Structure formats: C-alpha cells, structure tokens
Amino acid sequence: MSINESKIYYWLSLSSISPRTINKILEQYSPLEFWNDCETILRTTSLGKRDSFKALKQFRNEDYIDSSLAALAKKGIGVATRAGGRFPERLMQREVDPPAVLYYRGDINLLSTRCFAIVGTRHSSQYGENAAKKFAKELSPYFTIVSGLAMGIDGYAQRAALSEGGKTIGVLGSGINCFTPACNESLFEEVCEKGLVITEYPPDRFATKYTFPERNRIISGLSDGVLVVEAKDKSGALITADLANSQNREVYAVPGNIDRMGASGTNALISRGEAKLVMSYKDILHDLNVDFDENNTKNRVATLDNSELKVYNLLQNGGLHADEICLKLGMNIVELTTVLTTLELKQVIKKTLASTYCLAE
Predict the structure, then answer these.
(1) Could you tell me which of 57, 136, 138, 197 has the fewest CB atoms within 10 Å of its CB?
(2) What SS3 class is residue 253?
C-alpha cells in the first residue's frame, strides 16, 4: 500500500509534537512534501523539541504505519484524519488548533450531528448535579451532548443524556486504552457502545496535567455552544469557556449560590459578560435559533430532508431492521446510520430492538 495524506497525518500523531507545531509545519509544507523531505525540514526548522523529531523519524515507515493501523482496527479503535471525510469541519477552524487525527470508539457519524457541550466542576453540589442532569435531558432531543467523561458535572450530564435515549460524545485527555478516572469506567464503556469516544492522543498515552486543558478546545470546538453548570475560579471548565469564546462559540452559565466557592467561577463568567445567564434549556434553544415550540410529530417531519423523509415514509408501515431499510431504499449502511441517528435526535423514530427502528409516538 502506498503512502497517502491520511496515513501521513496518522504518522504525525505518533510523535509528541503539539498540534500547534504540526500546524505551523503544515502551513509551510503539504503533508506529502513534509513526508518526502522530512529529514531536511526537521534539520533546518526551529519548531518543536528534538525528542519529538526523533520519534517522527522512528515511525517514518510505511509498513509500520499500515500494520499499526490494522492492529488498531482489530481492537475496535478507528482513526479519523484531517484528510478523510469523517473529520468534522468545525474542528478544522484555525481558532481550534485542529488535531492531526481523532482516535475513536463508537459511532463516528455523531461528529456530523449538531453538538452542545455541558461542563463543570468534578466536585459539584447537589444543586449542580441536578442542573447538569436537567439541562442534559432537556437538550438531548436537539443536540448530541459533548463533555469530558470526568467525575462530577461531565459524568452527570452524559449519563442523563443516555438515560433519555440521547447521544453523547466523550472527549478524552488521554489515549483510549488509558481512560481515567477509574470510577467512570462503566460510563466510558457505555458511551463507546451507545455514543462516541474520541481523543487526539494515541491509545497508550497516559493523561498529564497538560493534556486535559488541551482536549478542552476539542470539546468547545465541536459544539454550537458550551454550558458551564458549576465551576470554581481557575477551573478547567473555565478554560473550556475561554476557548469557546475565542472560537466564536456561544457560552452559557447557570447562576450559583454566591456563598458557595464552587459557583464562583460561573458567577464571574456571567458578571464579566463572558457567558449568558440561563435559567432554562429554552433560553439556549432560543438563543441558538432552534425551534422548540411545536414539538409534535407533524412539525418535526416538516424539517426532514429527502433521505430522512424516505425512511420516515417506509417506517409508516411498521418497524424494520436496518438491513431491511438498506435493501428497500437502496442505501448503504454508512449513509443509513447517519440518517437514523438524525431521525432519533429529532425524535421522529426510535430504536426498539438491536438495529430495529419504528416511528416515535
């Protein structure tokens, strides 16, 4: 197999060179130019650390790259690169500092859905927990909920979205094989099965104090908006809010008890005008121009595109397995999966059994 841009991006991800450095190199050279003249470019550039460049030279082997990708596939780990069609356009914006690749487990098609992030402290109050669950449940029919699979607000929000049959994306600050915290292991596995877990880090890379803040730009970058539920001063959630503002994403915050340290960060965001105060999920939907007033099936169907409408019309005769839908409509499974996911998010259809779908009531 010959080298191509997708494999070159994967090769770049194997070193410890930062996305910012990789992006600076790729502003001057195309991926293929960098691959072909790697030695000269690395010898003359002042970017990055020598150890990182040494790793690039070590992994610059087509056979190794092919066998490495095949080994990941056997373990159920996919790789979406900036040269492939599965990499989300929102992460390609310069302000996001796009990663070279996304390693993933789960439904990669969720990257093409409309996303919204909910973040907050790992040490939440009962008020914060309740607010995270409430907003996640109420927003999940309209968005894929994005968060960091961390303790506290992140975990509460993602569990709540799943409990409503919604979809969620977990963004890791480590490799997929090195998930932390251990107390959320069951949530991690559930999101892999029912949603999507992504990371820019190779599978066996452990988290550091730097990788968690780095991954926050992906949480905000994927999303139309970010809701900070509860966070103290200098919290990681405030980093996400700051990144969202720099990426031109909307930022919202739930007001907290002025006497509680854990709410000082969210209250400060509101008082400085860096986040919009929200009391209800409808505040967010209204601000993002999402129609939520007419929730009956008739009005939801009116928003469907041609492919979605074909599936809807077919299911009016009764529930069908995904394979039967593919056969009757002449769609491939990748295209159909995207359509089914969208219809579920719009609450037009629901899954009744494994890969069997019927119209929602």
Answers:
(1) 57
(2) strand
Q: pLDDT tens string for the chain (361 positions)?
A: 588 999 999 999 888 778 888 888 888 899 999 999 887 877 776 665 566 677 788 889 999 999 999 999 999 999 999 987 789 999 999 999 999 999 999 999 899 899 999 999 999 999 999 999 999 999 998 999 999 999 999 999 999 999 988 899 999 999 999 999 999 999 999 999 999 999 999 999 999 999 999 999 999 999 999 999 999 888 889 999 999 999 999 999 999 888 788 789 999 999 999 999 999 999 999 999 887 654 555 556 656 777 888 898 888 878 899 999 998 888 888 889 888 988 888 888 888 877 889 888 6
The whole-model pTM stands at 0.80
Gap between the Cα atoms of 305 and 313, Å rounded: 12
Q: In whole angstroms, how far apart are CA 134 and each of 93, 142, 156, 160?
A: 31, 14, 10, 8
Cα-Cα end-to-end distance for the chain:
50
Alpha carbons 267 and 360: distance in angstroms, whole number: 39
8 A C-beta contact, residue 56 and residue 15: yes
Q: What tokens does 335 get?
A: 């295209």
